[in-house]
Amino acid sequence: xxxxxxxxLSLLGASPADDPPPPIHSLCDLSQSFTFYMDxxxxxxxxxxxxxxxxxWGNLAxxxxxxxxxxxxxxxxxxxxxxxxxxxxxxxxxxxGGGLLVMADARPADDGGxxxxxxxxxxxxxxxxxxxxxARRPLVGRDELKxxxxxxxxxxxxxxxxxxxxxxxxDDAGRAVLARRSYGKGQVLLGSRELFGKKPDASDPIxxxxxxxxxxxxxxxxxxxxxxxxxxxxxxxxxxxxxxTLEFHEGTEPFxxxxxxxxxxxxxxxxxxxxxxPSEGMLKSxxxxxxxxxxxxxxxRIAIGAFWGGYPERRYPMIxxxxxxxxxxxxxxxxxxxxxxxxxxxxxxxxxxxxGMPEARGVLERAITRARRLDPDLDQMDPLAEDAPRDLVWGxxxxxxxxxxxxxGPGALARYFRAKRAHVPADHANYSxxxxxxxxxxxxxxxxxxxxxxxxxxxxxxxxxxxxxxPRGDGG
Length: 476
Hints:
The protein contains 13 helices and 15 strands. The protein is an alpha/beta fold. A hairpin with a 5-residue loop joins strand 8 and strand 9 (176-183). Helix 9 (358-374) packs across helix 10 and helix 11 crosses helix 12. The protein starts with a helix and ends in a 22-residue tail after the last helix.
């Protein structure tokens, strides 16, 4: 990273000093809008080796910025407007020397326009706003970026700025898409979200050669203690709901009780569908995420997007999501091979179906139909192949689950979960598809290896690493 930084400094016309740059202590905010990209990935792309990164999950107005010199914000969620206290806190931080990076774009007018992006209220404090107008290619660098020859434009939108701002990157019509201004002792860097990486796996560090030096300069107005890391902040409010701790902050509190009620409704169905309770040590807390973009599970904690799928106007997607993320706590400690995500969603689909939601069966049937377009009889393509299409993996997985229930009686899935608990030790390594088929065979009392092989699965009973007697014979 240091060599890349030196190259970037030379591109920007600066003379790199012999001494390394002062440390950057960044805080990426996840409280106004959750995104996997801000959960450490941004820092790996642009700040690796330059300091330390922390995350803010709690009330932004209470974030400890005393040892932070770079605060990173995205556009936010319209359902969670910035509080006056949060905006005051950020303005005071910048005024005292802190660096603020805002990566955001306005939405087109038919999607709520600029006012639908909550960070716009904060930007008004710095005499700037987001404009939904799409930038006209090509992009051209100015000032520090004048010597940069090529920029990636993935559909940038322009900025509306006062004269206090210095445009660093403009479109063909001279409208800024990236700009910087001083404010008090600190600085603000505002840029179109499309100028930065986006992938959750941090595999697209576009423009890093010049973004990183800009961030070094942005953070230079405030000294930090290199011996102390910046302080992360967890959500600061919680409530116990049965065996679960509900985690939220002031902004997400209005959604917390509704999600807890949906989880309470879903949980008994998961117990019936799997025939067992969650694995030991799992499902201790539910974190309310400020996003409509889904959730995640660590096993012990599930995190649910507060307005996933149009909730509360549309309930089924939320029911499926909660059952999916909670379902991982039944699957663990051994993730399913091949269909770890499909089996969790299948539990969500079955839960929705049991609750009388017609959308559930439609999700299932459409997925199997997509798989049949690739493999009409679902007996040729191996979903275990490295290049197996996603539609094949998901649709064929659902088909297998449905067929096992049809061929071996309702409750086959629950018998599988019980058999997995009974025959797969907690310390078993590398639970494979061969092991999985062996456990299914034990669960239904029939050798299923010939059946799976007949569906194109590349499984082999000789590779089973579990100590159990797999029934022999044709399981078809």
